[in-house]
Specification:
GO terms for molecular function: ATPase activator activity. There is one protein chain. With about 160 residues, the protein is mainly beta. It is about 5% helix and about 25% strand. The strands form 3 sheets. A 4-stranded antiparallel β-sheet has the order 6-4-8-9, with no helix packed on it. β1 and β2 form a beta hairpin. About 20% of the residues are buried. The N terminus is likely disordered.
Length: about 160
């Protein structure tokens, strides 16, 4: 069910300003440099995730959190070589939503750093009270709140 709460976004002279993502919170997956390789030069790549725009959708985070939680794990093996960033709130801050088709709206991002050179499959889910993860929902709507990332070993 859609929420009817209102949102006040900051504005200057009637122009709505976007919420600002603190890119430094992405740790090893961000550096303000034109030659930054996002971990690919070390064979420890970073992948970036965002939620698709859903008009007038208000996230309902789990357990009183103020963000939609992103959980990721390897399909097989140990998860020690996987980092989610930002580490303090791994996911997407609820304050960025809802999307009202503003030209200045920017989606929040999260990063996944894979600290291994082995071939692997990473499975991720966006978790909130109003994100359905069932396979039935996926078949009916074409949306899952899930992502599968396949990493192949260099030959």
């Amino acid at each position: 069910m859609a929420s009817t709460r209102s949102v006040q976004r900051p504005s200057v002279r009637g122009v709505t300003l976007p919420c600002i993502v603190d890119l430094t919170s992405l740790g090893d997956c961000y550096k303000n440099s034109t030659d930054f390789k996002y971990g690919y030069d070390e064979e420890k790549p970073c992948f970036f995730m965002k939620l698709n725009r859903v008009f007038n959708w208000f996230p309902e985070p789990n357990d009183g959190k103020d963000y939609v939680e992103l959980t990721c794990h390897f399909e097989e093996g140990d998860n020690e070589d996987l980092s989610l960033l930002p580490t303090d709130k791994p996911g997407f801050l609820a304050k960025f939503y809802p999307y009202f088709a503003e030209e200045t709206w920017l989606a929040p991002i999260a990063a996944i750093k894979v600290n291994t050179t082995s071939a692997a499959v990473v499975l991720c889910e966006a978790r909130a009270e109003n994100i359905e993860l069932s396979e039935t929902y996926r078949l009916n709507r074409g949306a899952t709140g899930k992502a599968r990332i396949e990493i192949k070993q260099k030959k």
